[in-house]
Amino acid sequence: MTVWRPDDPPRTRISTCLFRRSLAEFVGTGLLLAAVIGSGIAAQRLNPHDAGLELLENAAATAAALVAIILAVAPVSGAHLNPVVTLADWLLGGISASDGLVYGVAQIGGGVTGAVVANLMFGLPAVVMSAKIRGGPGVWLGEIVATFGLLLVIFGGIRSGRAAAVPFSVGAYIGGAYWFTSSTSFANPAVTIARTLSDTFAGIAPTSVPPFLAAQLAGLLLAIGVVRILYPAVGIRHKPTDVPGRDATVAPTAGADQSTA
Amino acid sequence: MTVWRPDDPPRTRISTCLFRRSLAEFVGTGLLLAAVIGSGIAAQRLNPHDAGLELLENAAATAAALVAIILAVAPVSGAHLNPVVTLADWLLGGISASDGLVYGVAQIGGGVTGAVVANLMFGLPAVVMSAKIRGGPGVWLGEIVATFGLLLVIFGGIRSGRAAAVPFSVGAYIGGAYWFTSSTSFANPAVTIARTLSDTFAGIAPTSVPPFLAAQLAGLLLAIGVVRILYPAVGIRHKPTDVPGRDATVAPTAGADQSTA
Amino acid sequence: MTVWRPDDPPRTRISTCLFRRSLAEFVGTGLLLAAVIGSGIAAQRLNPHDAGLELLENAAATAAALVAIILAVAPVSGAHLNPVVTLADWLLGGISASDGLVYGVAQIGGGVTGAVVANLMFGLPAVVMSAKIRGGPGVWLGEIVATFGLLLVIFGGIRSGRAAAVPFSVGAYIGGAYWFTSSTSFANPAVTIARTLSDTFAGIAPTSVPPFLAAQLAGLLLAIGVVRILYPAVGIRHKPTDVPGRDATVAPTAGADQSTA
Amino acid sequence: MTVWRPDDPPRTRISTCLFRRSLAEFVGTGLLLAAVIGSGIAAQRLNPHDAGLELLENAAATAAALVAIILAVAPVSGAHLNPVVTLADWLLGGISASDGLVYGVAQIGGGVTGAVVANLMFGLPAVVMSAKIRGGPGVWLGEIVATFGLLLVIFGGIRSGRAAAVPFSVGAYIGGAYWFTSSTSFANPAVTIARTLSDTFAGIAPTSVPPFLAAQLAGLLLAIGVVRILYPAVGIRHKPTDVPGRDATVAPTAGADQSTA
């Protein structure tokens, strides 16, 4: 599953532009994790005896923040904020392998930073490994469904030319999937890894991570297959989120950023 | 109420295109039922003694997921996800009888699959028939109102050329109607049938189904009458959801799919 | 406060077109009242001991339904659904006095019908006069603020050419104002009158109605003044909601309906 | 941090136009504070023993009202409603120093008025200084994060030409940030000052205000830096919110208002 190929252009591709795009992924994923973990801590403190209200508050805050974060950084990087989205974008021809790797590093780095910030905002140690075991066949199936649906929502929107609606549909989807999937819809390796660093409502024990990542990969493969049938190849490289006016113009190596005017 | 007419073209119409469209209906309705039943199970487990919070959580998750699912598959099939919508579309000249039948089969098959997936995600047997009796004159009136309003929202949006807003208005409507109709707004035969397969919060006993279907049909007839007055015939075949750029171009037999570019 | 002037054209203006528009107001206001009262009854039954959750459920359901209802009927009638909006539209030159009177009758008739339907859906007698006293200086001030804000939101959107966003901003505003005004934001004479007919969560005693109507009128006058300063006269007759493509074309007597194409 | 420079044109710049724009800021910020404090009082009264529900109700009402208020006044003034936004706009070249000062006065005056109205609506004395101490390193960090994210959302939307989505992204962001920041996201000096005037759920003791303002300034500086990297200078003066059709035409001294047509 390596996405680095030897015939890729050399490191010079990591231009200022890629720096900007990676910074957008870093900041965006950082804010996302601050939202996921921060709202989980607040919910846990304010409703310590009502698991339902805790999840309702966590889901509503995450969904709302996600809409805003995607809208804030999408014109720069596409607002993947999720290694599975970047991987799917690579498999569908939307991003080069080397750019995708840099995106992944930025996403995980941003996610870790966001988790630390959330802990510090609420007066906790910067990092406390979570002891919260999550798993079991039903939960892993939930994670497959969560990831499958997320990618269908993203790429169904992109490949039909309706990218402007994707920030809203992704926020709505995640808000719903927190409830309707038994895993509470992680659906994102960067989120999964970063959530090991907070022993609070949103945490996940490190030992529970590998099966989650495998389930996310399974959901990805299922989604790629269905997306290819429902939305046959569009023949051009595209960006997976709200990028008005440049849907058809980004070159494969993404050497030039055309998102701001 | 048969929608198959002997002078329809032969089976060759069931082309690759209809396969794609039916797959979209199958996947979309499947995700919808996973959302309806899955979020019902989660709500029941997390707030076992608060029926109000359970319905609030179930309604919010369903409405949010519905927005995302419609946006994800509408360009392929129109995102009916509901045999009553397909029937209304046929009565209003938007889909052929044979295509409509295939849609209905895909919707019910998808709904059943989604119900099974929801049960499995939450560690329940794949199928347990619901024992939850629902009915009575007030509830049936609620189901008439629910279906009437849903179709008015959908076709009012479509027939005035504002299809891009319909995914949001349908999600908002269903989220509200879960609360304001005494039936909690099934308003969908595929949903009604699939919800017999889970003996949980969202379930309905099989014996309660026939009057629900009759009430949905009554709501459909009322809606068709009002839509015809408010939005007189538009003279072309159209698709009932967000399909940018092809509103006026789909031929009656829908032999060619023009939704992706 | 009469809006009928002797030099208006005779009754022939009440054409088929006005029938269609009035039917839209009747159906829309009916669904709105079914949503307001129906969700209030459901909330009261499911959370009988939690006044906060009741209002949260009532507000969320009303706001969501309102977005959908406005989108469903706006191209036909402008989706006033509220005599105060119609009166403001007349004062700002958007509707004739005679049409406005017919709108008002349709709105009140629709509201009463919706209240009756809500009662019947939940197994209550068709009409039970409410015994719920509402009032006091703070509450009346709340109603002034509620009406002022509602009209600012509507006409601020319309007079700046952004009518497509008004269904969403009105729904959001009412959802918020249920909470932030001490009157829970009636802001609508048709709603106020119709809510006397249900002795449930959303009811209001008939004796409490006159000061509410007076406060709504005060909010209207304040709003007209502020709107005229912020958005100086636009010089054309317009429709106060989402009517794509005809913002500048409706004649003063509104004799022809150009909303559907 | 002074924004007045001696070489600015004299007071004649404060034209009728600036009066209109300042009135929009005054009314908008007034309604915002009425929403923040009013919904806080309502939540406190209806759920006196559930701090989680109180915050959920307060956050939902504030976010919804904010969307509507921004949409209502943005074409007139840009709907800053927040001295930090105006300061950032000045630093990024979008507003002159003198206009910005007038905006700030209008925002604070409007906020104070809104706080008084909220108190009166709920039958409280017009002003009661809050005794609610808020602070500590985690809370101040929360306020830095809250302000940083808010400005990234606003200017990311504006500088990429997607101003029409900003009312929705700002409302969503604030709704989420009430939960995910430990300070419950004041992120606005006018809001911070006005909330000292109500000894209720949303109040803040005057002694807690200075560190909040300092944290907001720190978040501002961080945001300016990141925005300048992600969205390099656009070379023209612009308005920070939903202003269709005039994004590129406002002169540096903003002497003429071109927002209404």
Summarize the structure in words:
4 copies of one chain form a homotetramer. With 261 residues, chain A is mainly α. In chain A, 61% of the residues lie in helices and 0% in strands. Chain A contains 8 helices and no strands. Chain A has helices at 16-46, 51-77, 83-91, 97-121, 137-159, 166-180, 189-194, 209-230. In chain A, helix 1 (16-46) packs antiparallel against helix 2 and helix 3 packs antiparallel against helix 4. The first copy, chain A, is globular. The termini of chain A are far apart. The model of chain A is unreliable at 1-15 and 235-261 (pLDDT under 50). Chains in contact: A-B, A-D, B-C, C-D. At the A-B interface, helix 2, helix 5, helix 6 and helix 8 of A face helix 1, helix 2, helix 4 and helix 6 of B.
Which key phrases capture this entry?
homotetramer; 261 residues; mainly alpha; 8 helices; disordered N terminus; disordered C terminus
- The Rg value of chain A, from CA coordinates, equals 18 Å
Overall pLDDT of chain A, averaged? 87
Biggest beta sheet attributes of chain A? none
Overall 3D form of chain A: globular
First-last Cα distance of chain A: 36 Å
User: How many helical stretches of chain A?
Assistant: 8
- Tell me the number of strands of chain A: 0
What is the string of helix and strand elements of chain A?
Answer: HHHHHHHH
Oligomer: homotetramer
Biggest interface pair, counts: A-B, 46 and 52 residues
Detail the poorly predicted runs of chain A: 1-15, 235-261
In what range is the share of β-strand residues of chain A?
Answer: under 5%
Fraction in helix of chain A? 55-70%
**Structural class label of chain A:** mainly alpha
